[in-house]
Structures are given as structure tokens and as C-alpha cells.
Design a protein that fits this description.
The structure is a single chain. By secondary structure, the protein is an alpha/beta fold. The protein has a single domain (38-299), classed as Rossmann fold (3-Layer(aba) Sandwich), CATH 3.40.50.1460. It has 8 helices and 13 strands. It has helices at 2-19, 57-73, 79-92, 144-159, 180-193, 232-235, 240-248, 293-311, and strands spanning 23-28, 38-39, 55-56, 100-103, 124-130, 166-170, 199-205, 208-212, 223-227, 238-239, 256-262, 274-277, 286-287. It has an 8-stranded mixed β-sheet with strand order 6-5-7-11-1-4-12-13, with helices on both faces. It comes from Ditylum brightwellii.
């Protein structure tokens, strides 16, 4: 079995360019086994003019690092510095969750972390989702709307995102509702509209969960990681398989997609092959031990089927 796993991993390495065409990286608030915390007062993270008192711990730490530390040093932080400083901020505030980075290919973690790389000369697009689950007990949150407002302000002020290219979903009866159908539609719209040279940012602040894996031989722990939409009771959750198939694989080559998931059990919610944890002794990414081999087989099979069809 060990030999087979090794060969599958090598095969995955050879085929990943066919599986994921875009440059995809994700920061998650914690690993798959952890829960993510709400913060009662984001001013404790010294954010500039926070939209409200409450927020997600990881989003608050992320923005604090990007605002405060870059201003103090005058230079862009590296990937490893962003993750490690986020962990320091969380630890200082007595939060135990460990931020995690995952990506479509190995990243040199000592390179500057650029939300908008120098090569991204096209349109900057964003989909920001915040769900407080208002009126739902237990489970109501208080800071997810504020997370979205703070992230939107950061994108516009620091990276010149235009408001017309930012889609916001909130369960506030004002913005587009973050239902399962709307979230999936929003991801599909991003993949359709984004072109080579574009920089895309997706943010989700809300509940994440785990449910029984519905595909044999995919998840090592037998569980799929999920995003929990506002209408989950009626229409179910969004599996990591869905996110991979709808958002990751269709994104075009030449697009840079950065995602930030501030929710429980979010470490591998995009099923990306390479990971780095902020508590790692190394400064290198590793191949995810929970790599979804079933998905690899399925996607590679689809690729070669299309290739064979086109050749006829």
C-alpha cells in the first residue's frame, strides 16, 4: 500500500498542471480538526477604524499583520512571516487555532506575500461572504459581517480593488443572501469572468463543518470539510469536493486566486495539494497527507477523456 501511495503522489505531481491551471493559494483560520473563534472586540487587534466591535479571530489577525507589520517594516512580508505573525497575534490573544496555507503548487515561503502579484495586470475581483446566521440558536455569530466590511475596506484602500468588481454576500436582508445556490453561482461567475492576468480574492467568514465523505477512498479521515451556507437546513452544505470542482479547476491559467476561509475545519476545504502550518519547524510546503486521491483519479480521467475526444 505504501508503494501505491508513493506512485499516486508522483502521478499527482506530474498531472497537477492539468488539474489546476490557475495559481491558487488559500489561508485558512485553522486546520481540519480545529474550530475558529469569534472576537467580541476587534480593536484588541489594533485594526484601523474597524467596521464593528466583533469579528473573526483569524480575519482580525490577518488584517492586523498586513496593516501594522508592513507599516512598521516598510516592506512586504514573506508568506512564512504572514502565517507566523498571525499565529503570534492569535496566541497573544489566547486563541489556540493555527493558521494554515495551502496552494496548487509549492510556494517559496521566503518570497514576499503578494495579494496582487506584479504579474497580475488585469482586473482585480473579489467575492466576500459573511454569515452571522441571525436568529439561529445555537450557532448565531456576531462578527462575520464586520469581517467582510473590514476586508472590503482593506482591498479597496490597500490594493485598489474597485467596488464594482467586489461582490458582497451577507445575511442582513440588504445584500445578496449567502445561500448555497448564490455562493455556488458566485464562484462560477468568478471562473467565467476572470481572465489571464486577473487577481481574484475570495473570503468566507462563517461556520465550517465536517460531514461523512460520500466518495470511497477520497478522504483519509472519512470526512469532507464544508462551508455552511445560511440555508444549510433546507439545502445542505458546500463540500470541499464542490469547491474544488466549481472554483479551483475551472479557473483559467494566468489567474491568481487567493482565498481566505475564517471558519472551523477549514484547513483543506479547497483540497489543494501543498500545505504549510504556522507551527511548522520547516519553512517549506509539504504534500498534503490527506490528498484526495479519488478526486485526482476523477479529474485526470476527465482530462484524458477530453483529450481523446478532441483528437477524434
Amino acid at each position: 500500500m505504501g508503494w501505491l501511495v508513493k506512485k499516486i503522489r508522483e502521478f499527482k505531481e506530474e498531472q497537477k498542471a492539468h488539474l489546476i491551471k490557475a495559481e491558487v493559494r488559500m489561508i485558512s483560520g485553522c486546520d481540519d480538526s480545529q474550530t475558529s473563534a469569534d472576537v467580541s472586540n476587534v480593536k484588541m487587534f489594533e485594526l484601523p477604524d474597524p467596521a464593528g466591535k466583533a469579528g473573526g479571530a483569524c480575519t482580525s489577525a490577518y488584517l492586523s499583520v498586513l496593516y501594522k507589520d508592513k507599516k512598521a517594516s516598510g516592506a512586504e512580508l514573506t508568506f512564512v512571516e504572514v502565517l507566523q505573525k498571525m499565529r503570534v497575534h492569535l496566541t497573544e490573544k489566547k486563541y489556540t487555532q493555527i493558521p494554515q496555507l495551502s496552494s496548487s503548487k509549492p510556494i517559496d515561503l521566503n518570497e514576499p506575500f503578494q495579494l496582487v502579484p506584479d504579474t497580475a495586470t488585469g482586473t482585480k475581483r473579489a467575492l466576500l461572504i459573511g454569515i452571522n446566521y441571525t436568529g439561529m440558536q445555537p450557532g448565531e455569530l456576531t462578527g462575520c459581517h464586520n469581517d467582510v466590511k473590514n476586508v472590503k475596506e482593506y482591498l479597496m484602500n490597500e490594493h485598489s480593488f474597485k467596488e464594482e468588481n467586489i461582490t458582497v454576500m451577507l445575511d442582513d436582508n440588504v445584500h445578496e443572501s449567502p445561500t448555497k445556490a448564490n455562493i455556488i453561482s458566485g464562484y462560477k461567475k468568478l471562473t467565467k469572468e476572470s481572465q489571464p492576468g486577473d487577481a481574484v480574492f475570495c473570503h468566507f467568514s462563517g461556520h465550517g463543518s465536517q460531514i461523512k465523505d460520500d466518495d470511497w477512498f477520497e478522504e483519509e479521515d472519512g470526512l469532507d470539510e464544508t462551508l455552511v451556507p445560511v440555508d444549510f437546513k433546507e439545502n445542505g452544505q458546500i463540500r470541499d469536493d464542490d469547491i474544488f470542482d466549481i472554483l479551483v479547476v475551472p479557473m483559467k491559467e494566468g489567474v491568481t486566486l487567493t482565498c481566505f476561509f475564517d471558519c472551523c475545519h477549514s484547513g483543506t476545504v479547497m483540497d489543494l495539494p501543498f500545505t504549510y502550518r504556522a507551527d511548522s519547524d520547516s519553512s517549506q510546503m509539504v504534500l498534503d497527507k490527506k490528498l484526495d486521491f479519488g478526486k485526482v483519479f476523477r479529474e485526470v480521467g476527465d482530462f484524458f477523456n477530453k483529450k481523446e475526444t478532441n483528437a477524434k
